[in-house]
Amino acid sequence: MLEFAAAAGEIDYQVFRRVGVLFMEFSRLYLFSVQGTETSGTNAKTREKTEHFRNNATKSEL
């Protein structure tokens, strides 16, 4: 009976560990996807500012 309880505890630990690993992987993928959208958004803003300054510089030089 004691051996069965130890085996059941080991199975529970393995399941808990695998679920934890899966949770960490999905959270890491989610954070990378969110971070990617934020950086692309800031790159788009930076690009707009750069184009704005270029357009103003060319207009003032003319």
Could you characterize what this model shows?
The structure is a single chain. The chain has 62 residues and is mainly α. The protein has a domain at 29-62. The chain has one helix and no strands. The longest helix has 60 residues, at 2-61. The protein is rod-shaped. The termini are far apart.
Gist?
This protein has 62 residues and is mainly α.
Calculate the mean pLDDT score and round it: 71
Low-confidence stretches: none
What can be said about the biggest beta sheet? Answer: none
Please count the helical segments: 1
Beta-strand share of residues: under 5%
- 3D shape: rod-shaped
Helix content: over 70%
How many strand elements?
Answer: 0
Outline the secondary-structure elements.
Blueprint: H1 2-61
Keywords:
62 residues, mainly alpha, 1 helix, 97% helix, 0% strand
